[in-house]
Each structure stands twice: as structure tokens, then as C-alpha cells.
Amino acid sequence: MSNTIRFDVDGDGIATLTIDIPGKSMNVITPEFQADLAAAVARIADDSGVKAAILTSAKRDFMAGADLKDLVTAYDRGVSAAEAAGFSAEINKLYRKLETCGKPVAAAMNGLALGGGLELALACHYRVLADAPKVVVGLPEVKVGLLPGAGGTQRLPRLIGIANALPLMAEGKHLKPAEALKLGVVHELAPPEAVVQRARAWIGSGPEPVAPWDRKGFKVPGGAGQQNPGVAQTFMVGTALAAKVTWRNYPAPLAIMSAVYEGSQLPFDRALAVESKYFGKLLSGPVARNMMRTLFVNKGLADSLARRPEGVPRSKVGRLGVLGAGMMGAGIAYVSAQAGMDVVLLDTSLEAAEKGKGYSRKLLDKGIERGKVSREQADALLAKIHPTTEYADLAGCDLVIEAVFEQRDIKADVTGKAEAVMGKDTVFASNTSTLPITGLAQASKRPRLFIGVHFFSPVDKMPLVEIILGKKTSPEALARALDYVAQLKKTPIVVNDSRGFYTSRVIGTIANEGQAMLAEGVAPALIENAARMAGFPVGPLAVSDEVTLELQWKIMRQTEQDLGARFVRPVGYDVLRKMIDLGRLGRRQGGGYYDYPSDGAKHLWPGLREHWPVAAEQPDVQEVMKRFLFIEALESARCMEEGVITHPADADLGSILGIGYPAWTGGAISYIETFGIPEFVAECQRLAKRYGPRFKPTRTLRRMAREGQRFYPLPASGKAA
Ligand code: NAD
Which end of the chain, N or C, is less packed with Cβ atoms under 10 Å? Predict the structure, then answer.
């Protein structure tokens, strides 16, 4: 009895296989589905009453890929490359059996088809795809460190040519229905409700049930192999491009290219074996585990509000108050209006508030230019943003967020004024980037309802929101803040209060490390390039310029003032002070570590060499990369030790989505665990001796190393690390 596929045969002998994985809103490939599909394929092949088959889905969409919750455990269970290749080989055998069953098989794709779902459709002889706005097809496995291991790397290039197929797989791009049709990934488009009927019509036309690559004399469209100049060029450029983009930190894009390069020159079944071999290598390695765990499993949990306190009724923000219409307030207003909320945008002058609204207008105009937004949609969104200087307009707001200047007294002032008109149960949130929430909550009459909701810039692009709990913040306030983040479709992490919370604190360490290196005489270009080679989007000097050195300096002085005798000057202090004295305040102010000429690309400020002469002997690039990866990872471990972070997933997600820690690591804590906690501790000790006590391993790390503990528990059947 099949639990995941309904198998109906009509009077014409056409079998309809309706995929319906129980308990899931989206069909995914589970071990049970695979077993059911094997039985169904055997029946199609062996039952003489079955003349043809149509695969479709009972859900809104056709099918996504493999259930990553199963695959993510492979590395920790110590699955070898050969065993992992076996997973792919097994499914390849099954799909191949479907393809060569001798009867016409059509995929009636009633909604999106991604990864293994698209690969299943590619193993059918005919594909009809629903033509509807949210439908996409693609092979996005690369985004979690894998390759399409169910025939995708072999069927797609044979269908649409190597030059078309490679970017789709190596970058994991999605195709809309019209693009999929144009490229030849599918044969036909139809309204979702008509896909089965069209598949039936194709069967009625009496097609020959043979895949193109099983026909005599088949050639890969556009050619294959080194002898073909176009193909050789594609691989040459592709490999160079992959190296440029990934710095070889991500094995998947190159594995995809190898699988396609080798496989496309082989008979089909041997080609599938090549794919399985590369899939096995990736699945048994740490990068795929790290990317799947953080970017899929834990991101999914965070998005579904796993940290939301129980027992608090779900809430929805209909009307939002935003105090301060500067860079952040304007961005918060835009994304909130986009999510359907009415936004009261308050500033000290109407001109400033209107300017904040103007930010949305600018973004929308760009959207209209690119054909992504209609004029009506833009007008409707703008009509939701109400600029004002009147606190009385905040009455009726379900949530108020302040994004005024980073100054305690100003924040205290707006808190009091807003609370005077807000409903007595309304949550007040601060978007401060560094000031401890507990301290700011002192200005509130109801600290239970005071919380940190920290956005990242630019708000419309950055997917993370860091929620910060003050000492008195209540579970209700947390639940409501999380509900609001879910309305925005952003990913929340929840952290406890501390100066700089989690993200600002950690990004501060890499900025400081870059400054320390300048003072040591490390060449500025080496500093910046090493960070990018490690996988950071930009170097620490560029980050400082973006954040602005002025702001960093203000934060430093504020911290100095707040901590008094307890303040310890970070190693980069003197460099930062000098830059401020020199008037090099950051990008917005015209220049910092970089110059930003109006008529050319930004480049490192030549004056750096004058003030911090480059030493004759330069460190190895690997050592520089390590310092960056380590200093942020170590600060993350410190945040865990201090209870600022209570779950490693928050640090991993926060570091990747908020501050650009390289995704191949799975995040700052996964980096430590993958490096090996004892090895990490030993390396920290070496770095501390050489560069200073900021690299000293924490007490907890040392204990974990001694006792063989881990941050993430092993899967139930896993062997000890
Ligand atoms: P900004 O200087 O661009 O904007 C601040 C706005 O607040 C200005 O429009 C100002 O007129 C307004 N304002 C000042 N006093 C006010 C008052 N009493 N009442 C009403 N409005 C007032 O600053 P920003 O970069 O948008 O930062 C705002 C807050 O967000 C700060 O707390 C900052 O630390 C935090 N933050 C900034 C970033 C970032 O990347 N810039 C990221 C996360 C959080």
C-alpha cells in the first residue's frame, strides 16, 4: 500500500500517479516516497493493463527536492563518499527505469518543480508546466552545497545544451514558466488545472516513449568534449568564473562542472555513475552539512518562529509607528508597507518625514523601471506611509519602532512621548545597533513591553532581524515582535542583551582586526583580499567605511564613557582615532580607508601607506584569512558563554545573514565545530601568543575541548566526533 502516491488507472490504461506526501505542504523526496515510487514504476513497466502514465501532485505545487532533514545528517553519521554516492545511484536507477519502461510517461507539473522534483520530471518523456505567477523550475542544490544527484547534471545539458545548463545548475537559478519553455526544459505550458488534460492529449498523440539521449545518433545540443571549441570555452570561462565567485571555498560549482564535463562525453548510464560519484563527495563533506543545516533546516525553523513563546495568541500588525525617518526608519517603513501595514512615519520636521517616505518612492520608481512593480501597486504602497511630526498619530498603532539617532537621551525622549499616546499594551521596540536594551528600557513606563528589533542596512535587502530581550522584556513582547518579523518574511534570531548584542559585537571584532593589521604593517590590499578569499563579501576596511568610521568612533567613545575604568582599548583604537583626526570618516563622508572618486571605481586611499608603512615581510595570506574567521568565531563563542546567544543556530544564522560571515562555514559556530573544538582551541592559543590576548580561547571552549563536547548534538544514530 502506497502512502505517498495514489495510483489510478483509467479505462484507456492511462495510469495517473498523484504524489501526496502526508503531513507536508510541499511534496519532497523521502525514503518512503522513493519506495512507493519504485513500486509504482515496477507496476507501470510490468502491468500490461497500464499503457502510459502521468505523474502529477495533489498539492498546490508539483514537487521540491529531497528532504534535506534526512540528508543533513549524513556527514555527522560518518557516511562515506561511496555510501553517499549510493543514495544518488539508487534514485538514478529508479528514474532510469521509469524513463526506459517502454511506455509514454508525462509529467503534469501543476506548480513549482525544484531539485529532485524537476529531476523526476526530466526523467519523463514529456513535461507540461503550469503557467501561473509563482511557478518556477530549477536545480538549486548548489545553494546548499550539493549537486543535482538524481540525473539532473546529465539530463539537463542533453536537453538544452551545456552552455545553457551550466549556469542554471552552478548558480542554482530558477526559471519562470515562459523561460523554461523557451529553453526547452518543458514542452508545453498550460493553466494549472489543465496540465493533466494536456499530458493526456500528448499520450493520445501516440508518442514514441524514448528519451532523446536513448535515440540512435543522439548528440548533446551544441556539442560536448574538449574538441568542441564552444564547449571548451564554456568550461574555461565557467571554471574561472566559479573560482572568482567562490574562491574555491565551495566545492559544489566545480563538482557540477566536472560531472557535466565528464558525463556529457559518456554513454548515459555511465554518465549517471559519474554524477553519483561527485554527489557522494559533496554529501559526505562538511560544507554541504553546514549549508544545509544553517541555510535550510535552521533557517526554516527560525522562519516558522521556533523561538516564539507558547501560549501567546498570534498577533498581526495592521498599523505601525516608526520614529525617525532616516536611513533605517525609511527602510523599515518601506518593507512594512510592502507587507501590507499602514505606517506612521514620524520625524522632527515634516520635511524629514517626507524625505523618509521619498526613499520608498525611489525604490518603487526603480521597480517600475524594471517592470517589477506597476504604477498602481506603487501608489497603493505609498498611500500606506503617513509622514508626520505629531505623536498623537501613533494612537492605534499595534507596534512602535524607534530609529532615531543613536543617543540615549534622544531615545529616552521619544520613548516617553510615544508611550504617552500608545495603547497601554502596545509593544515599543528600539532599532538601536549597540545600546543595551535594558538601559534604554529605563526610559519606559512598561519595560515588559520594551524590546530590541534590530534591522540591517539596507533594510529592503537584508533578510535578518535580530530580536533583543532586555532584562524585563516579557514573553508577550517577544511573541509579538516575532509575529511582526514573520509578517515581513524576514528571518529572526533571538538574543539576550549585551553591548552590541550579537551581530554588532561580532562585526566590530573584524573591523578591529583589520585596523590592528594596518598598525602591524600588513599591506592594505592583502587585508582586504584575504577577507574576500575567506568568503567575506568585502574586506574589514571596506566594511568600516560603509558603517562609517565616524559611527565606530562614536560607539567607541560611548563605550569608553559607559565602562569607565573597565574599558579596555581595542588594538585598533589608535588607527581609528588617527583616521578620525585625519578627517577620513567613511564612505558617506567622502572617503575613509578607500577613496570614492565620482568618475571611477573605489580604491584604497594612498595615504594609508604614509601613516602605516607596509612592513618588508608580509604574512601568509592563509594566516590573515584565519585571523578573520577566528576572531568572529571566537566572539560568537564568547556570546554563547555569556548567554547572549542561547542556541548555536542563532549565531550561525546571524553571522551569515546579518554580517556576511562566509556561508560555506555554516556560520561562526559551525566553523568552530567543523575545525574541531580542540584544534580550534590550540590554534587560538597560538594566535593569542602571537597577536595578543583577544585570541585567547574562552573557558567554555577549553572545557568543551577537554570533555569532547559539541555545540550541535549528533543525530541519534551518529558516532562520536
Ligand atoms: P539617521 O541619522 O539616518 O536617521 C535618524 C533619523 O532620526 C533622522 O531622520 C532624524 O531627523 C531623526 N530624529 C532624530 N531625533 C529625533 C526625534 N527626537 N524625534 C524624531 N525623529 C528624530 O540614522 P540611521 O542610520 O537611520 O539610524 C537610526 C537608528 O538605527 C540608530 O539607533 C542606529 O544605531 C540604528 N541602526 C543603524 C544601522 C545602520 O546601518 N545605519 C543599522 C541598524 C541599526
Answer: N
